[in-house]
């Protein structure tokens, strides 16, 4: 017998928790920061450089949310000026496998996704 969505999430509160988590970790920056930090601790500017087009404000918010959820550890070193490093917690490391799996799935299926988008966009233009 095939399991249904309600078998996994029978309660509205559970569904909301899953939706909240998916909303947070489904954004492109959280996924990329977690994958990037699997290589080891990084300073803010190094993360920003490696991610490329992320704004300082977006990166700060992303790191703050990941820290709040226990995925990232923020370590401040008593130097002048203070040095700050970000690393994955054990909980954050546990996200690497599913995130890497998702990333590889995307790369493997990108030609199909791009083709589907192209066909959709062509149909949408034809309907105008």
What structural keywords apply?
Arc Repressor Mutant, subunit A, three-stranded antiparallel β-sheet, 67% helix, mainly alpha, 3 strands
From the alpha carbons, calculate the radius of gyration and give it in angstroms.
19 Å
Unreliable parts = none
* Domain count: 1
What overall geometry do the principal axes of the alpha carbons give?
A: extended
Give me the CATH fold name. Arc Repressor Mutant, subunit A
Largest β sheet strand count, sense and barrel closure: 3 strands, antiparallel
Helix content: 55-70%
- Report the oligomer: single chain
Q: How many strands in all?
A: 3
Please give the alpha-carbon distance between the first and last residues.
Answer: 44 Å
Major β-sheet strand ordering: 1-3-2
Report the CATH superfamily.
Winged helix-like DNA-binding domain superfamily/Winged helix DNA-binding domain
Under CATH at level 1, the class stands as: Mainly Alpha
Order of helices and strands: HHHEHHEEH
Summarize this entry quickly.
Helices cover about 65% and strands about 10% of the residues.
Task: Give structural notes.
A hairpin with a 5-residue loop joins β2 and β3. A three-stranded antiparallel sheet has the order 1-3-2. The chain has helices at residues 5-8, 12-25, 28-37, 44-51, 56-68, 90-126, and strands at 42-43, 72-77, 83-88. The chain has six helices and three strands, in the order αααβααββα. The radius of gyration is 19 Å and the shape is extended. It has 128 residues and is mainly alpha-helical. It has a single domain (5-126), classed as Winged helix-like DNA-binding domain superfamily/Winged helix DNA-binding domain (Arc Repressor Mutant, subunit A), CATH 1.10.10.10. 10% of the residues are buried.
